[in-house]
Specification:
- The protein is an all-alpha fold.
- It has 2 domains: 95 residues, Orthogonal Bundle (Rna Polymerase Sigma Factor, Chain: A); 74 residues, Orthogonal Bundle (Arc Repressor Mutant, subunit A), CATH 1.10.10.10.
- 70% of the residues lie in helices and 0% in strands.
- It is built from 7 helices and no strands.
- α4 packs antiparallel against α7 and α5 packs across α7.
- The longest helix has 35 residues.
- The N and C termini lie far apart (72 Å).
């Protein structure tokens, strides 16, 4: 088994641990930790750039990179395959970054929708009776929106933001047909609640 050199030794990292050479050899936890630290030093910046290119903030990207190497440590500690670890860490980073981006998009959509609904709450040109009726209508529609399953609510928010069905399917991670069904059900519920 060839040792993995750390960058502080001014030598290139030996990435033979990405090949099948030592895939079957058990490793002590301190050796696993050393390997993970070496890979972290070698790939941290590249993974961070990749996660930011997916659409994460630098802070969220840093969190994802940390998670990737925690997962890597667990992966190696459980004796799982060491083959193509570079590909493995990029795949895990990709999946975690997409998940984090989707969480952020849903949070932003929810915040934007709440801010928009608060801005529409009062119509200065309406008389008190009309203001009350509008307020009750908006409360009813807001309650229906909050009662929707997360996926349906996300689809509806993303559609309201102008995203097409394909884009929504990619963001939410569902099929085009599921987006269509979700939006149709959500709109039907909202129209029923609005008395149309």
């Amino acid at each position: 088994m060839q040792p993995v050199n750390t960058p502080t030794q001014n030598t290139a990292i030996d990435l033979t641990l990405t090949g099948p050479l030592d895939a079957a050899l058990p490793r002590a936890p301190e050796l696993i930790e050393r390997d993970v630290i070496a890979l972290f030093d070698a790939f941290r910046n590249r993974l961070l750039r990749y996660t930011v290119s997916i659409g994460l903030s630098v802070d969220d990207g840093e969190d994802v990179v940390q998670e990737v190497f925690l997962y890597l440590f667990r992966h190696l500690k459980m004796g799982r395959s060491r083959e193509n670890l570079r590909g493995w860490i990029f795949r895990v980073a990709h999946n975690r970054a997409l998940k984090q981006r989707n969480v952020r998009l849903r949070q932003q959509a929810r915040i934007a929708a709440e801010a928009e609904s608060r801005a529409l709450d009062v119509d200065p040109g309406a008389n008190p009776e009309e203001q009350l009726a509008n307020s009750q209508r908006q409360q009813k529609l807001r309650a229906v929106m909050l009662a929707l399953p997360d996926q349906d609510r996300s689809c509806l928010y993303l559609r309201a933001e102008g995203l097409g069905y394909r884009e929504i399917a990619e963001v939410v991670g569902i099929s085009l047909g599921a987006v269509s069904n979700s939006l149709a059900k959500s709109m039907e519920r909202l129209m029923r609640a609005d008395g149309q």
